Structure prediction request, 329 residues.
Amino acid sequence: MNTLFVLLDGMEDDPHPVLGGKKPYETANMPFMYKKAPNKHYTTGRGYTQLFLNEFFTGHPPVLQRAVLEAMGLGMDMSGRTAYRLSPAEIKDGMIHWSYHAHLFCDDLMKVMRDNLHMLQEYKPEIKFFLNGRAVLTMECDDIPDLPAPPVDAPFVEVPGDLGRFVMKVAEEMGGITNYPWGCGRLTTQYPPFDCIGNMTAISDSPTALGVAASLGHRIHLVDRMEDRFPIAKEALERGNVFLHIDEVDEYSHQKDPYKKIDVLERTDRLMERYFSDAERIVYFVDHGTSCVTGEHIIMNVPFWTNIETDMPKGELTPLDKVIPRLMR
Prediction:
């Protein structure tokens, strides 16, 4: 009997004034989830998706940096190479202002980056873009700078070497907008997944989540459109366990739009009922909070809801590294 794990990325939230002091998911109409997953539990959240998923599926904190995982999720070669996660940002007044509205300029940003990639030619660069101009860059070099990471705006730190000159050249041509690197690293040994996870398929639009799955030896499907992930997940569930990632919940939270967040949760619920009304084992889980008030991640206890009967006391906190073993016992 196979299990469907559904990550509602960043579903937890702050109470919102426009919702009468309620959180978006408390306002969303999700009858299927509440009926299908009556056993409500809590675990410890983490600041980023990859930190949560590594510990959720292996019982250990991650050893691979964000850029390395995303390179694996995008099918990029990491042999002898360093990976850099690139996120759209504006360099202004000595600050790095991360952009979650990059869809407004991402086509121009990607063109300027491609036009200037020759600046890194001696390092044999490979770059792949994904959601709204985000990218992963890999190069044959040893520089692994420690740089500020989103989502919180930070004082500007100069990126060293030729990569830094490339970043600032893009900013010069884009009026201060660039793709700033962070989460840099090289490939190393990953912890193995829990044995009880077995044969799993991961389906997401996020190379972060897919990279975690790929590093654990699971099959991955990069599927941009949310509605297209569900039939793929349904077919995969016939062969083994499935990890289905709804990244849009987090994305709309960063945009500080509670109504979009409510809408995507309600669409998810309708799609779950359409494709998985007969699923015998479903686990809904959340990795962290993402505030529609501030646009930032919130480290907090997070819910996981399921139709699996366990020995976990309902409503009590289960440590993150113990959730999978106790669910799959």
About this structure: Residues 33 and 269 are 6 Å apart (CA to CA). The longest strand covers residues 82-92.
